[in-house]
Amino acid sequence: MSGVMWGLILTEIIPVAFSARWSMPVCFVQKQQVKRISGPADAIRHMRDCFMDKSGPSYSRAVDICLAALRRETDPDIARVFFLAAYEDQLARAQKGH
């Protein structure tokens, strides 16, 4: 290769709506503080940082749908529904001791 670098040529720009917001935020108490999740980007960050189990199907699906909402492939409020399902699943697993 003698010092020649081959680069990837991007042919398409994918718009990302990092500022996408839900019509109604999700609020809950965590560690004696009110936590507010306002949209798909917040949801992904919260799931990545706070969920104990990142292997379940509800987690994977919620992340996928939130990413799709950021790419404007689905409505952000649909991502909210999937985030809530994953959050409820995490709560159930925590109560069972998983």
Protein architecture, described:
With 98 residues, this protein is mostly helical. Helix content is 47%, strand content 10%. The protein is built from 3 helices and 2 strands, in the order ββααα. A hairpin with a 2-residue loop joins strand 1 and strand 2 (33-37). The longest helix has 21 residues, at 76-96. The radius of gyration is 17 Å and the shape is globular. The model has no long low-confidence stretch (mean pLDDT 88).
List descriptors:
10% strand, mainly alpha, two-stranded antiparallel ribbon, 3 helices, 98 residues, globular
Strand content: 5-15%
Class by alpha and beta content: mainly alpha
Report helical residue fraction: 40-55%
| End-to-end CA span | 50 Å
Give a count of the beta strands, DSSP E runs of length 2 or more.
2
> What is the global morphology?
globular
What's the pLDDT, averaged over the residues?
88
Concise synopsis of the structure shown:
This protein has 98 residues and is mainly alpha-helical. It is 47% helix and 10% strand.
